[in-house]
What we know:
The chain contains nine helices and 43 strands. The protein is mainly β. The protein is globular and about 100 Å long.
Amino acid sequence: MKKKITLLFLIFNAISFSQIKGKVNNIANKPLSFVSVYLEGSITGTTTNNNGDYELVVKKKGEHTLVYQILGYKTVKKTVDINSFPFVLNINLYEEEVALDEVLISSKENPANKIIRNVIANKGKNTDRFARYKADFYSRGLYKVKDFPKKFLGKEINDMGGGLDSTRSGIVYLSETISKISFQKKPKNFKEHIVASKVSGRDNGISFNQADKVNFNFYENSFKLADAQMISPISNGAFSYYKYKLAGTFYDKNGRLISKIKLLPKRKNDRVFNGFIYIVEDDWAIYGTDVVVTGAQVSMPMVDSLHIKQNYNYSPLNKAWVPVTQTIDFKAGMFGFNFNGRFSASYSNYNFTPNFTDKYFGSEILSFAENATEKDSLYWNKIRSVSLTSEEASDYKLKDSIKTIRKSKKYLDSIDTKQNKFKLLDVLSGYSYNDTYNKWGVSFSSPVIGLNFNTVQGWNSSIGLNYYKLLNKKGKRFSFGTKFNYGLSDKKLRSTGSFSYKWNNTTKPILNISGGITTSQFNAKQPISRFWNTISSVLFERNYMKIYEKTFAKIDFSKEVTNGVRMFSGLEYAYRKPLFNTTDYVMFPKNDINYTSNNPKEPTNFTSSFTAHKMWSLTMGANINFGQKYISYPNRKFNVTTNKYPSLFVGYKKNFGSSNSQWNSDVIFSQLTQKVSLNNWGEFKYKAKGGLFLEKKDIPFIDHAHFNGNRLLIAPKDNYLNNFYMLPYYQLSTNDKYGELHGEYNFKGALLSKIPLLNKLNFHLITSAKGLFTADSKPYSEFAVGLDNIGFGKWRFLRVDFARSNFNGKNENRVLFGIKL
């Protein structure tokens, strides 16, 4: 025990005293954050925190030359002779004196344009100099709020982990990540191994600070930022989007001439940056970036602005300018929630001659070291490259101290007691009872929420009761529940039950068992929701939803068998029984409109439908995501699909066991989907489906291939590739071979942003085409043009499409409205 105490003392002594520390201010004595501080002759060091404080670990005493560097300020070199540690050194930085050369001013050609052309011409050469490397990566994420509401939509909002003060302001998210990153230019690969990860007040410690997500490489023609593909100011086609102005020049610490170029976007809402880019003369390399983009430009209306600053340093080893620090500051707000924050990162210990084997870069793009989320404060104090501010240190201390309390059974039970209290309003919204400490809960679904109307059951509603239990941190859990549905018109109670078991969150093996009596649409993909069928029925006397009764027992199992391949299987027994209209209720009856029958094939046949029968169904399939990458978290696997390759689903379904052998059937089917980024020209996505019945027979209509039609003025799904705009629901159902194709091109503002006045609206032009091909009918096609991102300010939830269909030489036009939530 004595030896352990001595060892801890020596470690603490080394951490506390083998360092140079201090504060960096401007001439007005205001702290400067994210100033690079390093020993001369290296590109490895530290940076100042948000309060301007820094701590630089050094290995030996004696004479050292320190360099202090940040965009917009003169670089300072300071030589000191250190006799003892810690050594305190405070520095004041002066703003960079940017001047315009008279020769450049009188030049006939815009000097900024000439500089940018040189940079573009030398991109390949400059990036080849650090085309392969390993480096250490440190990042910190910080979210702060001010005057945070106590309630939202009647629901109380907690104290966000204890970070809010009496004014409900403070830190709501603080995290740090230390990792090893590896990069390769050709073929392009990026890999990250997280050594340590910490989130204030949380047990799992898994932060959002993934290096690849903030790897904003301005040498690329475009890169993804939030939900937009941003155009670099030095992209090959940059002059179509930017104008440039030379703001001035200055010399760096080694006498190199640096040009400060102001970015002037040609159009306001293009995916471009405002701000400045700094260029090294002769090398034509990036010295730094200081750019801003609005939330509207990155398709995040709630964000006011994103401010990115990057600092590069010169590496004598490979004569390359490489990134050493980056900050992303943001402001956002909506619904009374206002917050701001910063994601900061630093790169150090570059190795430009890594030994990458052929198998070094695989499908795993991020992994965690063992116990990476369990490092103590002693470890973090030793290894973090940016010291904490007093506010951040206090947040860690406060939340770590209350974390243990808030994990206790006594505390969790007290919270559950408050939240589990039954309120009268729960009759309308539903009720949940949770035992957080023991990780189980039950929930009750309200019959008011489930109230709907159809012409078979009339007004009907469901009551559900569900139970869940979490078994471990790796994702093992089970749940079971039951649901009772009663129709006021047909006066029949139907009930179902279900059981689900999942073994882990890595390969996600899931078993589902269900059974009972229920009503089901003839198209099992549920093309019309109960809500919209209720609206169209009781208000407009149009009962589009067609249902039958099914008494069934079913078992499903799915599992990822290898990365990118997930297998599905299922077996169902069902007794199928026809249903008929029992009510003609309508709120506003019209003489020229009447309800159709519940027979999808014969809308005027109110007395007969299909023959009741039993059927066994065996389904097998596989979903294949080509080129899929993945992230290995400590207790789960997160799949990352790529837009480079499509995703393929193939399946087979066998219906058997019917009393009439002619009703048995075999069908194979497949689906291919992909989203293709077109950089600054938006994105194109498609979905192609097809199927083939091995033998064409007079099978029950339920087992035909059905297609997701639509007869509403509302777009039925968020994913427009799943549905047609105006295809009648069962008009082209088939028991033969078929194929359907959906394609959509979203310009993401690429066209409308170039049209004066229209570009101020920031609408997105969308075009789409759809086709359906069946063996027993002529092709059906639809073409549409629409506008997305409609709204004002931060409220942009509406999409409008004008669609035109063609079938058998007849055209139909329709305007559809969609709401994005």
